[in-house]
Design goal:
This protein is of the alpha+beta class. The chain is about 40% helix and about 25% strand. It contains eight helices and ten strands. The strands form two sheets. Strands 5, 6, 7, 8, 9 and 10 form a six-stranded antiparallel beta sheet that branches. A four-stranded antiparallel beta sheet has the order 1-4-2-3, with helices on one face. The two termini are about 20 Å apart. The protein binds adenosine-5'-diphosphate and magnesium ion.
Length: about 230
């Protein structure tokens, strides 16, 4: 698709492999994968203005080609409730990033809507040397990291494949609703999986993709962080 091709060409021209969150989310959006709304602020005044436009609370995040794990760099601040907090967070994040990596280029700070907490799922893709583009699905947090409760399919996948992926993880009952956890919109997650499949099939140069986390709601889903790496 047009925007995706332009972004990938630009990343290549700059000799980069890792896309910025802004780039990855713009691609997601073009493929119908819902993401948080965002705007790139270049100074603290803009951070405050954009935060007001987006609506509180907001999240601010560092955008730097040299910083891929933003939290490690003190580059993520959540639940900012007013313009002053957003402005202060901008300065703090830039300061943290410089401390973390003095040579890091800083493109700005991303101001985004704060997605309400919910059940978190992870959609991933890797290019397997033998099987090619492969999709991964699991539930966020301990389910992936500790219990390795994940499932894989070779792309492309159908809607039915996506449904199977979701139902076959052990944590699936959580998505169906359990005690205090309301049922989530499985169909919205199916769409994210199928659209991610389309994306990685259209662009075989994508070596890795991580939508982590995707908030799964009773109605809809929203990608909070997106990472794409080219080969
Ligand atoms: P990292 O590069 O460290 O993975 P993330 O963008 O994933 O940075 O942010 C770290 C954490 O902050 C996320 O896992 C999520 O819990 C929270 N977070 C980030 N962005 C948002 C957002 N827009 N809404 C709600 N929570 C967010
Ligand atoms: Mg993340």
């Amino acid at each position: 698709m047009k925007k995706t091709s332009e972004i990938i060409a630009q990343v290549r021209r700059e000799g980069r492999e890792a896309l910025l969150e802004t780039e990855a989310k713009t691609i997601c959006r073009e493929y119908g994968i819902p993401v948080t709304t965002f705007k790139l602020a270049k100074n603290e005044k803009e951070a405050a203005t954009f935060a007001e436009q987006i609506g509180f609370p907001v999240v601010l995040k560092i955008v730097s080609p040299e910083i891929t794990h933003k939290s490690d760099a003190g580059g993520v601040m959540v639940n900012l409730k007013n313009a002053t907090e957003a402005q202060d967070a901008y300065c703090k994040i830039v300061e943290n990033a410089k401390k973390y990596k003095a040579a890091a280029r800083i493109n700005g700070v991303l101001v985004q809507e704060m997605a309400p907490q919910s059940t978190e799922v992870i959609v991933g893709a890797i290019k397997d040397p033998q099987f090619g583009q492969t999709l991964m699905f699991g539930l966020g947090g301990i389910f992936v990291e500790l219990l390795k409760d994940v499932t894989f399919r070779i792309a492309p996948i159908t809607q039915q494949d996506a449904e199977e992926m979701i139902t076959e993880v052990k944590a699936y009952p959580l998505l169906k609703g359990y005690r205090n956890t309301p049922p989530t919109d499985i169909n919205a997650i199916v769409k994210v999986l199928v659209n991610t499949s389309k994306l990685i099939m259209d662009y075989p140069e994508i070596k890795e993709l991580d939508l982590n986390p995707v908030m799964a709601y009773e109605k809809g889903a929203k990608t909070v962080d997106a990472r794409i790496i080219l080969e």
